[in-house]
C-alpha cells in the first residue's frame, strides 16, 4: 500500500516581521501518532474584531519548528525512504507553501558547500552516491551512478533546465505511457528526432551538485503580489540510479525512432499519392475508380516493407534496453530506483474569507487558476490512490500526468509532502490555506 505522509515546517521569523506579531500555534499528538495543528492570530488593523482561529484534523506525521535544520528534516522525511529507492522503487517528496515560506530552502538549500545543512535534494544525492560507491567496488566495468533530470512545468508545457530551458510537451502515447518530449529536430538524411528530457549522468556528488545549481539558475521567476521573485512554475528534480550502458540503450531507442520517422512518412506519402491517382471525381461530386490509372500496389508494398524494417529496429532497440535493465537489475536491485522532488508553485493565490484582499493582475489570476487546477488534481490523485479507486484521475492536469509513472512505478513505496509556512501574523491567511491543503492531503493519504 502506498503511504503518503504530511509534515509541517515553520520557517524562522525575520526582523521585519517581528514587529507584526507572531501566529500562536499548538500541536497536539493523537493516539494514532498523527498530529493536529491549531493556529490563532489576534485581530488587528483591518481584520474582523474576533480572533482568527483554525485547527486541522489529525493528519500531520510530524512538525518542524523554526530552529530545526534541514538535516533534521532530512532525517525524518527522506532517510526512512532511501532504503526503498536502493531497492529500485520510486518515492516522491513534495514541498508546498506560499512564496517566501521556505520551499526552495528546504528542497535545494542555499549552503551548497555545507555538509551539515544541505537541502533535501543534495543531502539525498550525497547519500545515494556514497551507497553506490560501496556497490561499485565490485562493479568497475559498468558502475552505478545518479541520473538527474530537472524541468519545470508551466501551464501545459515543460521546460528542460538541463538543456537551456528547451520547451517540451507533455503527451500520452498510443501505448498509454506519458512522454515529455522536446521540439522536433531536423537532422541529416531526413532524420527527425524528438528528444526526451535530458538526463545528466553523475558519478560523484560534486558533479551532481554542479548540474543541480546550473539547472536551477534557469528556473523562471516572476513578479507577483506577494513575492518579487515568486516562482510561477512547479519544479521537478528526478534522481534515478542508472548505469552508462542503460543510458546508452535508451539513447539507441531515440536514435532508431528518429530513423523511422522519415521512412514512415515516405510510406504514408506513397500510399496517399497512389490512392489519389487511382480515383477521380464525378461531375455530381462523387468519387469513382480512375480508368486511366492502375494502382501501383508494388510501390506501396515496397514502402510499407521498408517501414516495417525500421519498426523492427525500434522494437529491437527497446528489447535491448529491457535486457540491459534486467541483466543489471539482477545484480543490483537498486537500478531504476528514483527519488523525485517536486517544488510546487507558490500557493499565494487564495480566496481569503477573512476580509483580506489581494491586488492581483488579470495575468496573475490566470496563472493562479492554472496552479489551483494542478494542486486540486494532485490532491484528488492522492485521495483516489489511498482509497484504492479503480480510476485514478492522472489526466486532470499536466502535473499529475507527469507524476503518473512515478506514482505507478512502486505501489508499495512511500511519498511525503512538506508544508512550509510562515509564523508571521501578516501571513496568517496564506499559512492557514497551506495547512488546509495539507490537512486534506494528509487525511486522504492516510485513509484506510
TrEMBL record:
<dbReference type="GO" id="GO:0008017">
    <property type="term" value="F:microtubule binding"/>
</dbReference>
<dbReference type="GO" id="GO:0003777">
    <property type="term" value="F:microtubule motor activity"/>
</dbReference>
<comment type="similarity">
    <text>Belongs to the TRAFAC class myosin-kinesin ATPase superfamily. Kinesin family.</text>
</comment>
<dbReference type="InterPro" id="IPR001752">
    <property type="entry name" value="Kinesin_motor_dom"/>
</dbReference>
<keyword id="KW-0505">Motor protein</keyword>
<protein>
    <recommendedName>
        <fullName>Kinesin-like protein</fullName>
    </recommendedName>
</protein>
<dbReference type="InterPro" id="IPR027417">
    <property type="entry name" value="P-loop_NTPase"/>
</dbReference>
<dbReference type="GO" id="GO:0005524">
    <property type="term" value="F:ATP binding"/>
</dbReference>
<dbReference type="InterPro" id="IPR027640">
    <property type="entry name" value="Kinesin-like_fam"/>
</dbReference>
<feature type="domain" description="Kinesin motor">
    <location>
        <begin position="3"/>
        <end position="444"/>
    </location>
</feature>
<keyword id="KW-0547">Nucleotide-binding</keyword>
<dbReference type="InterPro" id="IPR036961">
    <property type="entry name" value="Kinesin_motor_dom_sf"/>
</dbReference>
<dbReference type="GO" id="GO:0005874">
    <property type="term" value="C:microtubule"/>
</dbReference>
<keyword id="KW-0493">Microtubule</keyword>
<dbReference type="Pfam" id="PF00225">
    <property type="entry name" value="Kinesin"/>
</dbReference>
<feature type="region of interest" description="Disordered">
    <location>
        <begin position="17"/>
        <end position="36"/>
    </location>
</feature>
<dbReference type="GO" id="GO:0007018">
    <property type="term" value="P:microtubule-based movement"/>
</dbReference>
<dbReference type="GO" id="GO:0016887">
    <property type="term" value="F:ATP hydrolysis activity"/>
</dbReference>
<keyword id="KW-0067">ATP-binding</keyword>
<feature type="binding site">
    <location>
        <begin position="97"/>
        <end position="104"/>
    </location>
    <ligand>
        <name>ATP</name>
    </ligand>
</feature>
<dbReference type="InterPro" id="IPR019821">
    <property type="entry name" value="Kinesin_motor_CS"/>
</dbReference>
<dbReference type="GO" id="GO:0005871">
    <property type="term" value="C:kinesin complex"/>
</dbReference>
